[in-house]
Each structure stands twice: as C-alpha cells, then as structure tokens.
C-alpha cells in the first residue's frame, strides 16, 4: 500500500466518421469500448438501417469484445496483453466476417464465456466555456467497498481485489503491484482537434456497454448528444443473456429472442455527458 503511486497515462484513441474518440486505457474499460466500435466500423454498421439486423450486429460486437475482455485483459505492465492486435482493423475485419455470418444465419455467434457481476460507481462530466472537459469516474465498490474506514481520516477503502480473476496464470490474476481490471471508461470525442463530447457513467459492468451505446449513436449514426443519450440501451457480457431497456423497439426484442437470445428487461449504466460547440462556445449537459 505504501508503495502505491497514481499514474498519469495517455488515452487510447480510435477514429471513425470524422471523430477521434479518446478513452481510458487498461486497466480501465476503454479498450473494450473501442474494440466493439472497431467491429462496427469494419461492418460499415452506419450503413445498416436501424432495425433487427442492426441491433443483432451491434449486440454481437459487444459480445466478442466482452469475451476478449474476460479472457485476455489484465494489467499491461504485469501481463502480456495484445492491445495492438485487439484494436487493429485486421482483427476487426476478421470479427466482422464472423458477425456477418451469424447475422445472415439469424443465430447468436457461438462462444463460451463465464459470467461475472460487479457494481458500485459514481461519475461526473464537466465542461467550461473554453471547451476544457473533465470526466471523472470513481468506484468504491458495492455496499461501501471493503466496509473498512480509516480512523481519523473518514476514508472508506474500496474492494478492488474483487476485480481480479482468481485463476493462476490469467492476465488478470492477482500479483505483486498488479492493478485489477475495472469498468470505468471516461471518454472525450474530438472533431478537428477540438473536444465536442465528454461522457462517463456509473453502474459497474454496465459502464462499458452504455458508453459504447452512446458513442455508437453519436459517432456512428451522427446523432446529437441528446439523441444519443436518449437512445435505448442494452447490457450483455458475452453470453446469450441480454438485458434491454423497455424503450427498445418491440420488433427488435422479439427478433433477438426468436433467434436464440434470452432477452429480459433491464437498465443501462447511469450516464452523464457534456457537449461543447467550438464555434459558439455553447455548453450543454445531459444525465440519464
């Protein structure tokens, strides 16, 4: 504990549809978000009309990203993580072909993945009239973290150890000085080098999926911040179990259920977003 030091790290970046998306690198959840977006880009998802086929493709992009997350990711300073490969367009095209086959065959992509549950996070997104953006996500862990408070300081310790994988040899297995994977992924979107959107979320494992959903709508579909934040959200961690908000179109829910997904009602992460107009200096905020 005494040897711990906070690190200042460079964001990981991805360009799509005239936007540059900058998000938190490992051990944060940003890599999972960008992976799913690279799959959509390789699928030319923005050209697929909204509807059951589009929803199925989007869901499969998330499922593959989660499988890679669960099996391959960990602290890059302590484990071999193929980050460059996972974000490459070569890999994205390979996955896109598999997704296209599943979508055309009207069935879920076959893959085995273990389930996991985590929760307990807060987030704030802020912007000023000069266009400076700050998105800060902090997690204590559910039920007051470790439930231990330091005498005289009033600081409650988190339960970050629960985010390690207990299997020896796994990239996210515990080890000396290792940092566990977590779900937070505060993100800034740039156009022509200027920040136009900042977004972050609270909600444990739901965070990467919800940030992905907002960015898919904002960048992929070219929708406004308000429209992207209002769009229906789903939650899936790589299995065929899918939680969808009640505002999802009924035909898309029914279609996914018919082709083999276990669809239930659920909610996404609670999200805050801010926008900046470089021309007018106008700032706006949305919370949902």
Helix and strand arrangement:
Layout: E1 12-16, E2 19-23, H1 30-42, H2 52-72, H3 83-86, H4 89-104, E3 121-127, E4 133-139, E5 187-191, E6 194-202, H5 206-220, H6 225-230, E7 234-235, E8 241-244, H7 250-258, E9 262-265, E10 270-276, E11 283-287
Parallel strand pairs: 8-9
Antiparallel strand pairs: 1-2, 2-5, 3-4, 5-6, 6-10, 7-8, 10-11
Helix pairs in contact: 1-2, 1-4, 1-5, 2-4, 2-7
The class by helix and strand makeup works out as alpha+beta
Find the CATH topology: Glutamine Phosphoribosylpyrophosphate, subunit 1, domain 1
Q: What is the highest CATH level, the class?
A: Alpha Beta
CATH architecture: 4-Layer Sandwich
Strand content: 15-25%
Characterize the structure shown.
By secondary structure, this protein is of the alpha+beta class. The chain has a single domain, classed as Gamma-glutamyltranspeptidase, small (S) subunit (Glutamine Phosphoribosylpyrophosphate, subunit 1, domain 1), CATH 3.60.20. The protein has seven helices and eleven strands. β5 and β6 form a beta hairpin. The longest helix is centred in the N-terminal third of the chain and has 21 residues. The radius of gyration is 19 Å and the shape is globular. The chain starts with 11 loop residues before the first strand and ends with a strand. The model has no long low-confidence stretch (mean pLDDT 93).
């Amino acid at each position: 504990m005494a040897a711990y030091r906070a690190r200042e790290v460079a964001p990981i970046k991805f360009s799509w549809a005239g936007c540059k998306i900058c998000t938190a690198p490992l051990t944060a959840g940003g890599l999972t978000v960008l992976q799913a977006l690279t799959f959509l880009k390789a699928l030319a998802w923005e050209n697929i009309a909204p509807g059951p086929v589009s929803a199925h493709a989007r869901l499969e992009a998330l499922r593959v990203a989660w499988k890679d997350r669960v099996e391959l990711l960990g602290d890059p300073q302590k484990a071999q993580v193929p980050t460059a490969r996972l974000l490459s367009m070569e890999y994205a095209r390979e996955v896109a072909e598999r997704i296209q086959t599943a979508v055309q065959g009207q069935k879920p992509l076959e893959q085995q993945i273990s389930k996991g549950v985590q929760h307990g996070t807060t987030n704030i997104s802020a912007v000023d009239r000069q266009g400076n953006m700050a998105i800060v996500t902090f997690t204590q862990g559910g039920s007051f973290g470790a439930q231990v408070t330091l005498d005289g300081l009033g600081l409650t310790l988190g339960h970050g150890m629960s985010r390690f994988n207990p299997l020896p040899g796994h990239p996210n297995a515990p080890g000396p000085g290792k940092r566990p994977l977590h779900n937070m992924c505060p993100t800034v979107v740039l156009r022509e080098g200027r920040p136009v959107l900042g977004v972050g979320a609270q909600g444990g494992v739901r965070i990467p999926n919800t940030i992905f959903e907002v960015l898919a709508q904002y960048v992929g579909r070219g929708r406004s911040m308000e429209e992207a934040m209002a769009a229906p959200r789903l939650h899936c961690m790589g299995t065929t179990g899918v939680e969808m908000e009640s505002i999802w179109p009924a035909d898309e829910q029914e279609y996914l259920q018919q082709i083999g997904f276990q669809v239930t009602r659920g909610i996404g992460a609670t999200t805050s977003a801010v926008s900046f107009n470089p021309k007018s200096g106008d700032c706006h905020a949305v919370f949902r």
